[in-house]
Design brief:
Length: about 450
């Protein structure tokens, strides 16, 4: 299996990669399949059933909205985040769906009764993964035309039922120049070739794209991250969802600007950058999955920290940062999970913290051993982190949690840079431990909103 950095960092819509981006992609895949099979014109009705974590916290994560937009052919990357709510309101008021209309232009409109045709099963799960959904299509006589089950396995990745039992990631047999599936293999290749972690990843990325395309694609991701931080630090008000959580990034940024030299407040700025992103994510804005939406603030925050507070920072460093982060994120995706519904928030914020720590060590001039050490520190101190969103919304504790992880990533990188890269616990060991901890974790602590803060904080 081969994973590209562009699989881990994809441009999408908030508030959740597994509950918004994945279901939107799955719904779009379903209607695209109807067209491919030549039965779209015959389709008179569709039904969607959401299971496991999708059913338990789907309303808080905007999953019904995502499914409706996906059925109309919208993609997380290109959907207009400013008009998406209006599109959903039109569907709900009219009781009509334009199947694949956003893609093909021709409107195949059908009746749609959301309460009866988009069903969230709060306590039923499918066998393969906690984020499962099944879609059905029927003709005017009620005869089934297509039934497909999809799993949103974290970070916006989607696999259908045909992939069950094969792997948790989409199949890709691309031959890479320097393939590695573990931290030990990564370090061995770096030592044998004399290449840095980011250079190893760059050579592998060339299996799909030219170096110029890779650079431009990563800088586009950086521009989206910058735009997201900028929006988050300029917008105020109350976040949607009913908890009445107030945006804080903009007001805090104004306060810091009046307090003198930004270098004296670097940690606070890192926190604010992350919170700005996750406030935008909670509001359904445009974000980069890094590696998930729930953890989308950590890498942009640390990358802003690098650009704003590290002398000599430049766009070449941005590219190297994202490549190194992708190399580390790939190890988590291959060997454990980045899905909060599967292993808790350690798989989301923990993985993001590890990726950001290793990437920062890379652009600070760290050796491959120091990069691996920084990534290990970043994950080790997030082990056991539960996913217990209050109200099923990615607001409490998610927004602050990203801010804390950004600072932790900077600290981990700085600690690793003070050493020579030797340490007792390897990155591979900590990834294995994270996976085992997730398996042992009770289901109520894995994005079901049935445990932890989700039940001990009064929603008001």
């Amino acid at each position: 299996m081969a994973i590209s950095v562009f699989d881990l960092f994809s441009i999408g819509i908030g508030p959740s990669s597994s509950h918004t981006v994945g279901p939107m992609r799955a719904a779009r895949m379903f209607v695209t399949r109807l067209k491919k099979d030549g039965v779209l014109a015959q389709t008179a009705s569709v039904r969607a059933e959401l299971f496991g974590s999708l059913g338990a916290t789907g309303h808080g994560h905007g999953t019904p909205k995502a499914v409706l937009l996906g059925l109309e052919g919208h993609s997380p990357r290109t959907v207009n985040v400013e008009t998406a709510d209006d599109e959903v309101e039109r569907i709900r008021k009219s009781g009509r769906l334009r199947l694949l209309g956003a893609e093909i232009g021709d409107v195949h409109e059908i009746a749609f009764d959301e309460p009866n045709q988009l069903i969230l099963h709060r306590r039923r799960s499918l066998p393969y993964h906690a984020n499962g959904m099944t879609l059905f299509a029927y003709d005017s006589a009620g005869t089934p035309l297509l039934e497909k089950t999809y799993y949103s396995v974290g970070g916006g990745f989607v696999v259908d039922e045909d992939a069950v039992g094969e792997d948790r990631i989409k199949l890709d047999d691309t031959v890479l120049k320097y393939p590695f599936r573990s931290g030990d293999e990564m370090l061995r290749l770096a030592n044998e070739t004399g290449l840095s972690i980011s250079s190893l990843m760059l050579e592998n990325e060339k299996a799909w794209r030219t170096e110029e395309e890779i650079r431009e694609g990563l800088l586009e991701i950086w521009r989206v991250m910058q735009s997201c931080v900028s929006r988050g630090m300029s917008r105020e008000g109350i976040l949607p969802g009913g908890l009445r959580v107030k945006r804080r990034a903009a007001a805090t940024a104004r306060q810091l600007r009046t307090e003198g030299d930004p270098m004296l407040h670097r940690s606070e700025w890192a926190t604010i950058y992350a919170m700005a992103v996750n406030e935008e994510n909670a509001a359904g804005g445009r974000v980069v999955t890094a590696p998930t939406n729930g953890a989308a603030g950590v890498l942009p925050a640390v990358l802003h920290y690098y650009m704003n507070f590290v002398p000599g920072a430049d766009e070449d460093g941005v590219v190297r940062f994202l490549l190194a982060a992708g190399a580390i994120g790939m190890l988590f995706k291959e060997n454990a999970s980045i899905s909060g519904a599967e292993v808790g928030c350690q798989g989301e914020v923990g993985s993001a913290c590890s990726m950001a720590a290793g990437a920062l060590a890379e652009v600070l001039g760290g050796t491959p051993e120091q990069v691996e050490n920084a990534a290990e520190i970043g994950m080790e101190h997030n082990l056991g982190l539960t996913c217990d969103p209050v109200g099923g919304l990615v607001q409490i504790p998610c927004i602050e949690r990203n801010g804390m992880a950004a600072v932790k990533a900077v600290t981990a990188a700085r600690m690793a840079m003070r050493g020579d890269g030797s340490h007792k616990v390897s990155l591979d060991k900590v990834i294995k431990t994270m996976k085992e901890t997730g398996a042992d974790m009770k289901v109520k602590y894995k994005e079901t909103a049935r445990g932890g803060l989700a039940v001990n904080v009064i929603e008001c």
